[in-house]
């Protein structure tokens, strides 16, 4: 049985993280993105906290990170989830370990709502999010075209903080 570990993502993980991201892009079910940005651009677009990798026997097998939904102060506790598991590691429960840890860290950091946009053809991702306490709050029909010109729907999934106030929440 392999040893599963979740730890904070480090800049030196970028080679493995970007490879996993490219594998997700190649499925055409994980994102509308068609290429992986350079680390500096990716780093600038994601929160500093709540960046995790999951290791399978010491190998980076997946990653998760948060992106602020809106820069306004009133939405400071709302973030969008990115989660990817490497092709050869899928179906082993690593996504559950990773997303569970991300949700726990997000609450400790003061986030009260996590959301994910899941493409219509990504049933495994929808199932994972449901298993981790997310719910479908909407379906956006024909919201974007894929690289083949086909219209696609997305599901907006949301998870609320389990406590009345997240641990890291600071009142003004």
Automatic annotation (TrEMBL):
Domain of life, per lineage: Bacteria
Every N-acetyltransferase domain range: 4-162
Pfam families: Acetyltransf_1 (PF00583)
Species annotation: Faecalibacterium hominis
The entry's keywords: Acyltransferase, Transferase
Name this polypeptide is given: N-acetyltransferase family protein
């Amino acid at each position: 049985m392999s040893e599963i570990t979740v730890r904070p993502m480090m800049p030196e993980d970028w080679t493995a993280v970007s490879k996993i991201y490219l594998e997700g892009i190649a499925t055409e079910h994980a994102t509308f993105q068609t290429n992986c940005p350079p680390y500096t651009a990716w780093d600038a677009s994601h929160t500093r906290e709540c960046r995790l990798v999951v290791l399978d026997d010491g190998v980076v097998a997946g990653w998760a990170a948060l992106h602020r939904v809106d820069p306004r102060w009133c939405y400071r506790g709302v973030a969008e989830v990115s989660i990817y598991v490497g092709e050869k590691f899928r179906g082993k429960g690593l996504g559950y370990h990773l997303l569970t840890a991300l949700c726990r860290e997000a609450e400790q950091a003061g986030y009260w709502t996590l959301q994910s946009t899941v493409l219509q053809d990504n049933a495994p991702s929808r199932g994972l999010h449901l298993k981790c306490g997310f719910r479908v709050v909407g379906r956006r029909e024909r919201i974007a075209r894929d690289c083949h010109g086909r219209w696609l729907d997305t599901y907006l999934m949301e998870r609320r903080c389990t406590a009345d106030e997240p641990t890291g929440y600071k009142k003004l």
